[in-house]
Structure formats: structure tokens, C-alpha cells
């Protein structure tokens, strides 16, 4: 398959009261045409910062992309003018944000918000764009789309708002959809409906999806390949089937062990002790070492590289690379 998006060596920095901190540190990943790539990790691992860096939506006053390349269809977006980036953003690359209530404008009707992108990118008339907005609302399974287009965000349920966000993202038929925790605030029934909707749209439109989540159940259902992030770095990457059958990094193993199991008689769920380190105060050596159950002294002294340990399976763990684990 052909790479649609290639991110290589991406480093994103923020200026804070404590000085310059690196929230994303040397990320390299690719999304192929027609596939779904998942990015998984706890809150604070750098998943959303990675997606906002790709879209170039981070506040320029306090942040910058220090190094790296973001190539979309072979062209480096970091070398483009802002006009060129705007022509891609919302058109060929679209994004669904984590919380639709804070992403939708409370003072504009739903139909206007969806049609705005169609008017800008597709050069449609006001009437054509309004009809396109209603068509997209119908396509994402919203009943009475003509009526919903005339309503405001606060008049809709959480599931309906998320469908509206998907309609906004899909109005220009993007090649790549970035979905940042698209089902986090939804109950499990609505979550299943939203995932089914995204899968159907992907199948019908032939687009690629970059799915950002902390839910490994969503990854199993939606993704072809998966990237595990920890403290601003990728610690493991492989296809989804291999990740579940043969996880290599201790962090990945900890995440999988924390999933509830239908079989077995455990009374308590497994958990990973501690928390993700503050990027302003990272530990020396492996960033997961302070929480790792199998860490040895050299793990705390030496920062491991991300290397291919098995065919198509990379891992950032000294013990795995030495064949000890």
C-alpha cells in the first residue's frame, strides 16, 4: 500500500515557566491509503499533540515544531505556506476533536457550521452548501436532517453532536481523517454506533483514518496497525493481531493486562503503578523504567532506541532487543 501520510522525526516543543519542554520527541509513523492506524497511550503521552502538530493547529506563541517532516501525498507540509496548509486542512485532511461541545460554535446553527467548509473548499454557493450540509447529516445517520441543520449544538445529545462533527469532517470527502478520542464521552451503545459509522464511511469513501485513543477495545475493532506512545515517544509499533497475541514492550503488556477479562476469577483489575512523567522532568534512561516491573539498572541509565525486534514489529526496550525479556 502507498503511504498517504509520513511523519518522520517529529519534535514539538512548548515554552513554559519551567523552560522549554519537548512534548513530542522524535515521532516517526506512516498512514497508508485505505488503512486505519491507531495511536494508543495514557493521557499525557503526547497523542493529541502529535495530531495537532500534523494539522498545524498548535498555538504558535507558546509552541513550535523543532524538527522533523510531515509529508502528505509526498509533499512536506512544514515547508508549505499557511494558505497551502489551509487548503489541505479541512479539505484533504479532516479532524474530529475529542469533545464536540467545545469544538462546535454555540452561536451558529449546525447547518451553517457544516456548510462553511464546503463553501470555502468546494466553492459551492450558499444554497448548494446548505443542501450539502443536509446531505451529510443524512449520511451520518441523523434523523430529520433538515430540522437538525436549523438547531444549535446545545439542543443535541452527545451522540448527535459527535455525528455532526463527523459530518463536518466528511463534507469535503477527505483522504485522511484524524479522529482524536472520538468516542470518549459517549456511552457504550452510542460508541458502537459511531465506530460502525466511521467504518462504513471509510469503506464507502476509501479514506484513511488516524485513530487516537486510550481504549484498546476501540483499537481491536477499528485499526489495522497500532503505535503505542509513552512520554512523547513511540515505544512499540506492529499490526493489531500481533499486538494482542505477542506484545513486547512492558508498557504495552501493562495496558493489555489492565483490560477486564470475561474469563477468570480476578477480583481486582491489574494496573500500572505510578503515572506518566512530566515532560519537564523526565527520568534518565528508559522513560518507563520507574514504573516497569522488569527494569534493571541499565534500563535506568541508557535511553533505548526504537528498533525492529521481529519482522514488522518495533520496540523501544533494551531487554527485548537483547533477547532477555
Automatic annotation (TrEMBL):
It comes from the Bacteria. The keyword NADP does not apply. Residues 5-256 form the ABC transporter domain. SMART domains: AAA. SUPFAM superfamilies: P-loop containing nucleoside triphosphate hydrolases. One of its GO terms (molecular function) is ATP binding. Its main location: membrane. It is a peripheral membrane protein. It is found in: Cell membrane. Pfam families: ABC_tran, oligo_HPY. CDD domains: ABC_NikE_OppD_transporters. PROSITE patterns: ABC_TRANSPORTER_1, ABC_TRANSPORTER_2. Keywords: ATP-binding, Cell membrane, Membrane, Nucleotide-binding, Transport. PANTHER family: DIPEPTIDE TRANSPORT ATP-BINDING PROTEIN DPPD, OLIGOPEPTIDE TRANSPORT ATP-BINDING PROTEIN APPD. Belongs to the ABC transporter superfamily. This is ABC transporter ATP-binding protein. The lineage of its organism: Bacteria, Bacillati, Bacillota, Bacilli, Bacillales.
